[in-house]
Design a protein that fits this description.
The protein has 243 residues and is of the alpha/beta class. The protein is 31% helix and 11% strand. It contains five helices and six strands, in the order ββαβαβαβαβα. The protein has a six-stranded mixed sheet with strand order 1-3-2-4-5-6, with helices on both faces. The chain is globular, with a radius of gyration of 17 Å. The chain starts with 10 loop residues before the first strand and ends with a helix.
Length: 243
Amino acid sequence: DIADQASARPGTSSTATGANPGIPVGVIAIGHSGLTGENSDPKRPGQIALENSWATGTSPKVNSIYRRLVAVRPETEGHVANTAQGGAPASSLAGQAQFALETVPTPALVVVQTIDNDIRCDGTDRTHVTEFGVALADALQVVTTASPDSRILVVGQLGRPPSSVRCDRDPSDTLISIIEKYETEQARVCATVPNCRTDDGARAAYVGRSRDFSSDRNHLNVRGQAEVAEIAWPAVAGLLELS
C-alpha cells in the first residue's frame, strides 16, 4: 500500500439495535486500504470489498476478526463500522474515528492499520515520524474520549521487503529500517493509552507469498485476508481477555 493514492469511499455497516450504551460492543476499523478489502473481489477490480476485510468483513471465507467476535460474543452482531480509506495517511485517522463512532459509539474493539502511506522514502522520514506519532495520538484520543473502555489494537506493517531495498537518500537506511522507525513510534504512542496494544510483531513476521495477493500484487486477496485475520486473532483475544 506504500504510495497507494487510490481513492476509496469509506464504508460503514451497522444493523443491530438496542445495545446497552454503557457496555462496549462491536468493532470499528480505521486506516488505509489494507482494511477495505480493496481489489480482493476479481469481479470488481480495483474496488473496495468490505465483506472481505480481515478486520470487519462478513465473508465466511475470510473469517474476519468481526466474525470471530460474533462467534464468542453474539451481541457483537451488526455492530461494525469500517471507515478506512485507500491512500489514507495517519492524519486521516482522527476523522475516520469520529465517523466510525457515529455508527458504533462504544466499540469493544478498535482496529488501527496505518504507516504505509506515511512512508516517504525521500530522505524526510526521520522528521516525518514525529508528525505521524502526533496524528496517531490525536486519533487515539478521539476514541478514548468518546469510549474510554474500548480496547485498541494497532497493527504493524505486514511482512518485510528485502533487506537490500533502499529508497532513502541515506544509503545506510533501508526500507526495513524506515518501517521500523514508524512502528517504534506507533508502539510508543500506543503505550501511552491504557487500553491500547500492538500486535507484538506478529504481522512483521509474515512472509509474503504470491498466492495471498490480488492481481495488483499489492493488496491481499481473500486467501490473504483470511491469513492476516488468523495472525491478528491472538492479539485480539488477549486484548479482550477472551477465554
